[in-house]
Fold:
Amino acid sequence: MIAHPVIHWWDDDASETRHEYLFKYVKHLEEQNAATFEKFLQNAWLYHRQPLMGLDGEFDAPPDPYESTTNLCEHAVDTAWSMIAKYIPRVAFQTDGADWSLQKQAMQLERWYEAERNRMTVDEDAQTAFRDAEVFGTAALYEFEEDGRPQVEPVLIDELRVDVKECRRSKPTHIYRVRFVDRQVLKARTFVDTGEKEEAVDAAPSGGAWTWFRHVEDGLVAIIEGWCLSHGGRQGRHIVAVENAVLVDEEFDEPELPFLFLHWSPPLAGFYGRGLVDQLTAKQFRTDKRSWTIQRGEDLAGCPRLFLHPNDAHLVNQINNDPEKSIHVTKTGKEYQFQKGQAWGPDIYLAQRRDVEEAFEFAGISMTAASGQKPAGVESAIAIREVAERESGPFALHAQRYEKLHLELAKKVIARQKRIAARGKTEPAKWNSGNLLRLIPWESVDMDEHMYTMSLAAASGLPKTPAARTQYVIELAQANAIDRDEMRALLDHPDLRKSNDVAVAHRRDIERTVEILMEEDQPYPVPETYQDLTLGVKLVGLHLLDVKTRGAPEDVLERFRNWIEQAQGILDAAAAKMQAQMAMAQQPPGQPGGDMKGLPNASPMNPAGGLNDAFTRLSPQAMGLPPR
Structure:
């Protein structure tokens, strides 16, 4: 075993040969945790039954000598994965007692992060990390900067090395990522930016023994990237090195390491957690052994056999499984015996089924959830949702850790963006709401972290499958909880999307009007006769009450009031015009003008004259409002 180096790579005494001390120390950590890395390979095999990509070692042979016909680990992991990771938490930014401008800024910050989250594919990466935690016990997400913007990617836990003794009850203060990369690919990396570094990569050793239990394929070069936090009297450092040279050596002044970790079951002490595959390993081996025994018995005793007389041995080549084939014999009176045996009694098959059920129950998964079937007697959509909620109960703590991962990642991404912005210009985020695309500059949402709090909320309370979503929306409509337009918008069926876009355009138009009314620097949106003003008066009135309770300034409230008054005036004028037309239609012949004393400036030749005056009095200019 490689001994622990006396001098650490981050010490000033190691400045000339940091790469040598770095490689010795990392190899020491890997050999110290050899059993853990071997377990990673075993768990990967139990889950997928194939060697884990990206891990070069001598553990390619399957740890289970029996071929699996019932992969409990894969079924359990995928079931729990779909039950928990299908819910995508949304990060909400809230202010406490802040003024209106800070509230709007927090709302824009929430939209900025939502746009960046979609760009970085955070949801997919977090779901991958959740699956990795089930398989390996611990999963990692790497948060870094790429092309001047924050970025996130999942990292195989086998690539990371930590000092387990340092992490008995605390987080690591230094961490290392080990990769085996093709030499030409490594030379194309941005940090290999000088001829001297290219020469060092060309001269770096490849292949051969890495540690006593791991070997590197020919043509691959080992590269280690390490981070060390400022701790005590030491200065934080970031290093990238091959075995014969340092490629990057710089100070590292960030308060935290650039990794987030998710444990399926946190360890009592140390760093690495215990995964769902670890919990099912013994049961998987037992199930595989019994499956192998059953299969061998069926092959030996369960296959039909035909016993021939020794004198008829020549007929063996003519016997096959063709049901219509006849065999001609020249002798008669011979006895042929056809025997079909029973390999096993029913007890062994019942025991095999019982083992499978016990394994899922041990993992906290019901057989109905594992098979994707609904329980007997459960027919209504509400009952099915209640059963699904109850079945996810055993994974409540795992779900909480998954939600916390999203929250911590949002904090890291925003902190990274602040550091990027401190160095210069930043790229705006592209926020998409329906068919509306808006650019949100970071400068407009940059807030001090003490001015807001971050919390989690479900991204959507609707079911995820199209059938369940349709049923749930129909139930809401039948209960009069939503109207027809809201029903069409919530269904969002691909075949109806174009039709829905047109059908709910009037609602989206009013919602957009509300957004403009909330922005004092936006031009005032004058009500138009072709808008759904009846819906507008209702929705704008509700939002007026909402922004009023949130402390909106009087200027914003006045914009809402003016819009409602103008819209209501147009509706009243239209109603008066219709009443006048109905009154004219009801007059007897010979009285063309009818009674029009209710309309000023009206005459038999211009019965709607008073209506035109009403529109004039309700114009934006007459009311002292800015023109359109």
Q: What stands out?
A: The chain has 19 helices and 15 strands. Residues 53-63, 376-391, 594-623 have pLDDT under 50 and may be disordered.
